[in-house]
Write a structure and sequence with these properties.
The chain has three helices and no strands. By secondary structure, it is mainly alpha-helical.
């Protein structure tokens, strides 16, 4: 799931669609906190062996080394602020707006 979302985010950046990137980054904060992203399950000593102690649930900042969801939530929060700032710059006409399909029309060259 993470690789699909991060690729989607890169595509939005290429298209300069920072409003959608802001919304996607905000959603990713919550996916990180609830273990859908980066729920690094380190092996444990249970018999039979399992993938780790973490399951889907809320994971805030905890004191074991394999929970990185909260770190990703902080990163996604920074990305949300970054993209929101770019939305403001676009609305102030300081940077170009989102790339659209009409921008890519190719004119036929007559010979």
């Amino acid at each position: 799931m993470f690789s699909v979302v991060i690729t989607w985010l890169f595509c939005l950046c290429i298209d300069r669609d920072f409003l959608k990137a802001t919304i996607l980054s905000f959603a990713a904060i919550w996916l990180s906190l609830f273990g859908f992203f980066a729920s690094h399950n380190a092996p444990n000593d249970s018999v039979p062996p399992t993938e780790g102690d973490e399951k889907v649930g809320f994971y805030g900042k905890e004191d074991h080394e394999y929970n990185n969801g909260w770190r990703w939530a902080v990163s996604w929060s920074l990305a949300t602020v970054f993209f929101a700032a770019h939305v403001g710059l676009q609305r102030a006409n300081i940077i170009q707006g989102p790339y659209g399909e009409k921008d890519s029309e190719v004119q036929k060259i007559e010979t």
